[in-house]
Amino acid sequence: MNTYAILVAGGKGLRMGTDLPKQFLTLAGKPVLMHTLEAFQKADASTVLILVLPMNQQAFWADLCVRHGFKVPHRLADGGVTRFDSVRNGLEKVEDNGLIAVHDGVRPLVSAELIRRCFQAAASEGAVVPVHEVSESLRKVEGKGSRAVDRSLYRAVQTPQTFQSDILRKAYEQDYRGTFTDDAAVVEAAGYHISLVEGIPENIKITTPLDLLLAEQLLKR
Amino acid sequence: MNTYAILVAGGKGLRMGTDLPKQFLTLAGKPVLMHTLEAFQKADASTVLILVLPMNQQAFWADLCVRHGFKVPHRLADGGVTRFDSVRNGLEKVEDNGLIAVHDGVRPLVSAELIRRCFQAAASEGAVVPVHEVSESLRKVEGKGSRAVDRSLYRAVQTPQTFQSDILRKAYEQDYRGTFTDDAAVVEAAGYHISLVEGIPENIKITTPLDLLLAEQLLKR
């Protein structure tokens, strides 16, 4: 079956005076995004890679690719105002049917094995997200207070969230809602069942300097 | 006001053939637990430190203290079967009234500032836990399925969880329940209100090799 990966790089910036967006931070000698694209290529070299990047970062990215001699083939799509818009733009670059993985550009340590596991499960289940256990106690904010909740009932959601293309297209025909924080929520709101597969602890999202430190250490192992 | 810290080191092991419990892993040249004790001493040298350790680890700990020339004064209490039992045993070593912080022994990177913030808030609020935002999307398992929940309504709970001594003692008169995953849950079940203060991202719990790697990097900064 055809496989596609939509890699969403939402970090803003790059105008004068703003910080370098996380997707361009250097990890083990090259930008985070290059690690992410390579992970998908390694999992299956035939997967069509679609990188969703804000328009004002695309020239910078092209320059980075030249400077790093980066040869992994990929398509570009324009980033939108919300993640929802970005994924929808990426989806327009998928011309055929098959399986579509939607992945955070800033999760460069995703393993080839996890990517394959998600595609395989999506082929039979339709809609799949990798999850892992919540490692800390959780409280839920309610009104002015909060209460302990049973963390064993919760799962932290990773990506790639992977779908049969007809399901993902149908889901993204919906109008945007504020509760659409990930693709599973979008697909679920369209009435589909979401299946869970086991994620991996290394598949961290790089959003803080601590995360980058940890990723450096993980890559060294 | 008198201040006490009950440091719970629950990691099992040390019999033949088992792994070294996390609390004894070497972090920047010394056992994790020594960092934790030092953090509380640094926050306030007058705080009485109570280390709760399984009985079969206490001789090993005494030996470690000699070998590392570790001089931070502390009392020992016996670890119990559950965390609830361990905290209760630690509580018996508190002979006076005051403020009591209960802290995970495997959170060595807690800052003096956070410890002081928790004691200060507990003095006025009664029962305080440090929390931080949940960084990943959450799903709740329900029956055979799961559903997306709004992660902005949830907080990940850290320690030190800090209480006025009369509140904590009253709470620990209850019989144990399976839902008592942290002290806030115990105190809340006894009918008290829990206040939240802002935690710090560095205050990680060392439960995996990745966590230890990250802690090493954080200490180097």
List the helices and strands and how they pair.
2 copies of one chain form a homodimer.
Chain A: E1 3-8, E2 26-27, E3 30-31, H1 32-43, E4 48-53, H2 58-67, E5 75-78, H3 83-91, E6 99-104, H4 112-125, E7 127-133, E8 138-142, E9 145-149, E10 154-157, E11 161-164, H5 165-171, H6 183-189, E12 195-198, H7 209-220
Parallel strand pairs in A: 1-4, 1-6, 4-5, 7-12
Antiparallel strand pairs in A: 2-3, 6-11, 7-10, 7-11, 8-9
What does this protein structure show overall?
Two copies of one chain form a homodimer. With 221 residues, chain A is an alpha/beta fold. Chain A has seven helices and twelve strands. Chain A has helices spanning 32-43, 58-67, 83-91, 112-125, 165-171, 183-189, 209-220; strands spanning 3-8, 26-27, 30-31, 48-53, 75-78, 99-104, 127-133, 138-142, 145-149, 154-157, 161-164, 195-198. In chain A, the strands form three sheets. In chain A, strands 1, 4, 5, 6, 7, 10, 11 and 12 form an eight-stranded mixed beta sheet that branches. The first copy, chain A, has a two-stranded antiparallel ribbon with strand order 2-3. The longest helix of chain A is centred in the middle third of the chain and has 14 residues, at 112-125. The first copy, chain A, is globular, with a radius of gyration of 17 Å. The A-B interface holds A 129, 131, 134-142, 145-151, 153-158, 179, 181-182, 184-185, 188, 193-194, 196, 201-202, 205, 207-208, 210, 213-214, 216-218 and B 129, 131, 134-142, 145-151, 153-158, 179, 181-182, 184-185, 188, 193-194, 196, 201-202, 205, 207-208, 210, 213-214, 216-218.
